Structure formats: C-alpha cells, structure tokens
Amino acid sequence: EKGGYDYFMLKEIAEQPKAVADTLLGRIGADGHLRLDEVRIPDAVLREADKIVIIACGTAFHAGLIAKYAIEHWTRIPCEVELASEFRYRDPILGQRTLVIAISQSGETMDTLMALRHAREQGAKVLAVCNTNGSTIPRESDAVLYTHAGPEVAVASTKAFLTQLVACYLLALYLGQVRGTKWGDEIHAVVRELARIGDEVERVLDTMEPVRALARSLADKDTVLFLGRHVGYPVALEGALKLKELAYMHAEGFAAGELKHGPIALIEEDLPVVVVVPSPRGRSVLHDKIVSNIQEIRARGARTIVIAEEGDEAVVPYADHLIRVPATPTLLQPLVSTVPLQVFACELATARGNEVDQPRNLAKSVTVE
Ligand code: F6R
Q1: Is 159:8 a contact under the CB 8 Å cutoff?
Q2: Which segments of 122-196 does DSSP mark as H helices, in order?
Q3: Could you report the per-residue pLDDT of 25-76, keeping only the tens digit for each?
Q4: Is 364 an annotated catalytic residue?
Q5: Which residues constitute the catalytic centre (predicted)?
Q6: Helices 185-195 & 159-178 angle (0-180, nearest 10)
Q7: Nearest alpha-carbon partner for 37 in 46, 27, 47, 29
Q8: pTM, entire model
C-alpha cells in the first residue's frame, strides 16, 4: 500500500504532481476561463461579497495565509485569515456579505467546524475547501470546492497542502472572473502557469538528493530557523511546522522583515537558517531586501540554506547551501518552494530515528476542540 516507499509521507510527497493536476482537472477551460460550476454558491453571492474570512488550523491555516495574498491581489476583496481555534471566541464581525472559506483536509477538524458553525449563525456564507468527500465540514457548509489529493495517510500534511493552494488560487481567479475584474496579461500568465505547475513540482522532486544529504548532516542540531517574505513567509511557517512535528526540533518561521525587530538576536555560529527567497523578477525590492537579510545573518555566523529560483545569481555568494526551484509567477512560488521543506523535514526526522508517518502526540484528524 506504500507503493514501494518506506513511508506514506514519502509516497504522498511523490504524489504531489498528480494531486495538483487532479485538482486542476476540468477547472480551467481551453480559453483560460475558470469553470467552478460545482461550487454551488450563486455567482450573485460571490459578486456581492465585501469581505472574505479564511478559517483553518495548522498546515491548512498556512495555505489560507498564502491564499490571502492571491485573493487580495487578484480580486481586491479584503481578506482576513484566522486560526479557527481563535475565531469564534473573539466575537468576529460577520454579515450577509461575508464569505467565509473553511480549509480542511480531513473535513472533521473540530476547531474549524465550530468556527464555521459560528459564521453561519451570524449569517455568513461558508465555502469549504476540503479533501474528504462527504465529511462533516463540507456537509455543514453552503458550498464546497474539493481538493483531489486522494487519501492522505501520513499525519504530516503534504499533498493536501499543495492542493489546498491550488484550490485557493482557482477560487481567487474565479472570484475575479465572476466579479468582472479586468484580466490583464499578469492573470493570463498565471492561469497558463497554474495549468502546468504539476510539471514544475515534478522537476523539484527530481532534484531533492542534495536536500536529503543536507538534512542528514543536520540531525544533531537543536534549532532551525526559517525566514521568508510575502508568500514565502507562510512557506517559512510551514517549513518550521513540519520540522517540529516530524523531527521534534525547535523550529521557528519568521517574516524576514521582522528579523531586525528581535529574532536576529537568536543568530549564532553555525545555526541553520532556511531562507525562502522571492523571485527577483516580480517584486524585486523584496528580493533585494531578503538578500541583505541573508548577508546579515551570515555575517553573524548563520549557516544559510537558501531556496531561490533558477537564474537568481544574487544569492549565490551568501548561500552555504543553495536549493533551486523553477521560476514561477510570484504568487505561485509556494507550490514549488514548500516541496524541499517537506523533503527536508521528512529526511531529518528519519535521520533522528523518528516515526515519520505517526509522529508522537499527534493524530491525523483532530476531532476535539
Ligand atoms: C500538519 C498537519 C496539521 C493539520 C491540521 C488541520 O502537518 O497535518 O497541522 O493541517 O490539524 O487539519 P485539517 O486540514 O484536516 O483540518
């Protein structure tokens, strides 16, 4: 059942190109238009939404953080992302024109379920992004956009995360389409790139051997830090979460711009710091800023592990280890930059003798609040 892999997690990491392609299947027309008729929310509701609130937990929350960048940039609808466990306890402002997106792989997470019930009681419409057919969260939502990752067995979420991102991108683009947002060249390029992103994920998977070797060499470390900016920031959080749950190491993700506001004090000789570098093409200001962050931490002794797109030469002098990912439109980069972090955490956990598929103290679906 593990299809020749030692762990379900390895199998599920390898299945990502297919999971991504399956989630896209039939949803982008030949003319580049999005087809999400299966989402039963009437277009009128989508047209009138004046606020989007995303609720989720753990890895699904990180997908939500990335979705916010895409939704706001492509649709100009204000979007908040909140941990489902915090949501209803702070008396959030919700109304008829609020669209709530609940993201959940299992569809059974109690925190997310309670948050969505609260949202519906307040009159908001809820759309679930879910991987499990007929589970509770989609059943209790007004509409559902299924991810097609297939069953995810390993406790640590991998392929479900990538497909949650794909579903959120599709949804954001669809919202733009329904609302008549002017589709410039940027959006057309994004749709084209999204349609073939599974191949790019495959290319990343083909180059993971050095990442595994690097992970093994860090097995006796206590701490790994992760830095990112823009959509690379949630990717950094996700890389840190994977390392915590699988390798049982102290791992923290930071927005690179926050470094100078505190975390830089943590940098010491030989501390591994993973940096997710934004594309030098899109928001090049951010790229330049993060390159100076890498210089700063390296000057203080950090061992820099840099994830940067192919052709980005500016990072080369400051990278102790360089992990290349294919160039993609900025907002789509998490689909490729998360993959090395999954492989990294999985290999480090194995090197430390941990049970990868069943990490201690964790369950695949968390049905208590
Ligand atoms: C992390 C992980 C958890 C889940 C979280 C939400 O690898 O698996 O953080 O992402 O418990 O679960 P779902 O998506 O089933 O609601």
Answers
A1: no
A2: 136-139, 159-178, 185-195
A3: 999 999 889 999 888 888 899 999 999 999 999 999 999 999 999 999 999 9
A4: yes
A5: 364 (for fru-6p isomerization activity)
A6: 150
A7: 27
A8: 0.97
Residues ≥6 apart with Cβ < 8 Å to 41: 99, 125, 127, 142, 143
Atom of ligand 1 nearest to the CA of 112: 16
Who contacts 72 (Cβ-Cβ below 8 Å, separation ≥6)? Answer: 78, 79
Give ipTM to 2 decimals: 0.98
- Give residue 105 CA to ligand 1 midpoint distance, Å: 7
SS3 letters across 5-72: CCCHHHHHHHCHHHHHHHHHCCCECCCCCECCCCCCCCHHHHHHCCEEEEEECHHHHHHHHHHHHHHH
| Residue entry with tokens 């000057």 | 299
Amino acid at 131: N
- Cα of 103 vs centre of ligand 1, distance in Å, is 10
> CA-to-CA distance for 167 and 172, rounded, in angstroms?
9
Cβ neighbours of residue 118 closer than 8 Å, sequence gap 6 or more: 87, 88, 92
